[in-house]
Backbone:
């Protein structure tokens, strides 16, 4: 595997702007980068329109398939569910940078695996956290009585609103009015379901508890039938992550290592679609709250997270 860069790498875009991995990109810049990759690598990358956010912003993905061969095992990566976790969408962008712009370094993976990567599921909340409230977590749905937003990671359909969320529209953990009541989660559900036939691995990138988690998040004691496989791969990813910069990562069931909560994306995928492998990767932490990683620390965490992802991707390439 190639040695990933931890120094800022400049990427020229068609719009004439320069995006680098030492500053956080806007939602528009993320979309520009997706378009640029599809334009420059047409036999490898294709834009997928996932849906539209509450405020009308596009939610987009990039399908990565060498020579556009459709029938390979599929890995779906979702990022940017929670607005304030800026390092999450940037990690997805860096993964795209590696496997698309440096595709020739990952021949074994790309010969055997396709990818569908959604860098920013929650563009409204992300932009609101960038411009108005750095601590904002939710989407930007209008809930009434001056309350806004749904915690998108409490709005998915598997055992929705049974534990760990709130029915208070003003709460940070508001579960919404029904499962998939947020257009963002409904769009992601449709994308997952329409690609379920080949789905082998689903990865949610979040920040910043420094963990590799597997389902289920709603319970400390309920596990998928192949929990031994999940545990072994999670342990391997943790070793990879810790070998990069010395940060301590832990692995285990999501409902055991974090407070149990239903309605998460990984529970929906594991509980209804049931691919072999479902994980949340909680990135390295920084800043005052963990998720507000300073731009000066981005490069290390992006490289570290990408190594963890590639450990999963190599496992799929060699075993699925």
Residues:
């Amino acid at each position: 595997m190639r040695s990933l860069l931890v120094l800022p790498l400049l990427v020229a875009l068609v719009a004439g702007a320069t995006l680098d991995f030492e500053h956080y990109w806007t939602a528009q810049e993320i979309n520009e980068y997706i378009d640029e990759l599809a334009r420059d690598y047409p036999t490898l990358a294709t834009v997928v329109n996932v849906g539209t956010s509450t405020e009308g912003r596009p939610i987009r993905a990039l399908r990565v398939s060498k020579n556009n061969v459709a029938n390979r095992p599929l890995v779906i990566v979702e990022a940017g569910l929670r607005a304030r976790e800026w390092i999450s969408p940037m990690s997805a962008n860096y993964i795209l940078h590696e496997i698309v712009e440096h595709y020739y370094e990952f021949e074994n993976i790309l010969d055997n695996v396709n990818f569908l990567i959604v860098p920013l599921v929650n563009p409204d909340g992300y932009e609101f956290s960038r411009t108005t409230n750095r601590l904002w977590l939710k989407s930007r749905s209008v809930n009434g009585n001056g309350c806004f937003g749904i915690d998108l990671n409490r709005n998915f359909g598997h055992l929705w609103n049974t534990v760990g969320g709130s029915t208070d529209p003003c709460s940070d953990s508001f579960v919404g009015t029904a499962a998939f009541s947020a257009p963002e989660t409904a769009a992601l559900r449709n994308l997952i379901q329409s690609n379920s036939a080949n789905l082998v691995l689903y990865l949610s990138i979040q920040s910043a508890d420094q963990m590799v988690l597997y389902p289920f998040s709603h319970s400390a004691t309920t596990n998928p039938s192949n929990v031994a496989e999940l545990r072994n791969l999670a342990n391997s990813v943790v070793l990879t992550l810790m070998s990069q910069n010395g940060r301590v990562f832990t692995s285990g069931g999501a409902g055991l290592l974090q407070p149990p909560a239903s309605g998460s994306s990984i529970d929906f995928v594991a509980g209804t679609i049931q691919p072999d492998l479902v994980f949340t990767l909680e990135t390295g932490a920084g800043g005052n709250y963990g998720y507000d990683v300073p731009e000066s620390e981005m490069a290390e965490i992006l490289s570290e997270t990408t190594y963890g992802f590639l450990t999963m991707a190599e496992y799929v390439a060699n075993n699925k």
User: Anything to note?
Assistant: Residues 91 and 302 are 5 Å apart (CA to CA). The two ends are 19 Å apart (CA to CA).
